[in-house]
Amino acid sequence: MSALSIAQLSFLCVFGGALVGFWLRGRLPEHHLHEDSKTVVQLGTGLVATLAALVLGMLTASAKAKFDTQSDEVQQTGANIVLLDRALARYGSETAPIRAQVKKALEVMVANWDHAGPATGGAPPVLETIQLEIRDLSAMTDAQKSLQSRALDLTYSLANTRWLALEQSGSNVSYPLLVVLVSWLTAIFLSFGLMARPNATIVAVLLVSALSVSTAIFLIFELDQPFHGLIHISGEPLRVALTQVGL
Length: 247
Hints:
The structure is a single chain. The chain is mainly alpha-helical and 247 residues long. It has one domain (3-244). Helix content is 79%, strand content 0%.
């Protein structure tokens, strides 16, 4: 289910709770709406609202941390590709075919980034071929041996980043926890509708509030899938790297 669909369903549940509250208010006996009853409802609502705020903040922080981590990995990938090309260039002219492969692979990564994300953009399968070709180089001097070792280390780092991106591509959001959160929010809005006489201002405020919390849920799921959707990691670090490779 997409982030937008989850946010829409959350909005319907939350704002629907307010409408149910309005409906119940017109059908409950008057003594159920006495001042003491309102006080108890307000206290209970405050407790649930505090729990909902904590869970919402926890989910937002977790999703943002995942987004930032994978954004850093993309930047590190771009830097490692440039460093790999520099090491190969300093090794000697015999690495020209390998450098051409690196540049070609990077061009494919940039071209597919917005559509495929880490599936093809994190590091292409040709990386293993590049590793073998670097390993087969006949280093003659200590400097070449050092550069060969450095180039291999960079390819291992690129491969590690690719697999990390693939392993992290799944959702970190707990759906049972999301269901509990939406249930709490629905109960809160039900109490709002139960305690207030409906008018245009109150309905508008509750509508905006329901939109706000559903937007927060939308942002959580958008950040949780950083390579897809409206909010996604930019491929700019790879585009910058492409301008530096092969020089």
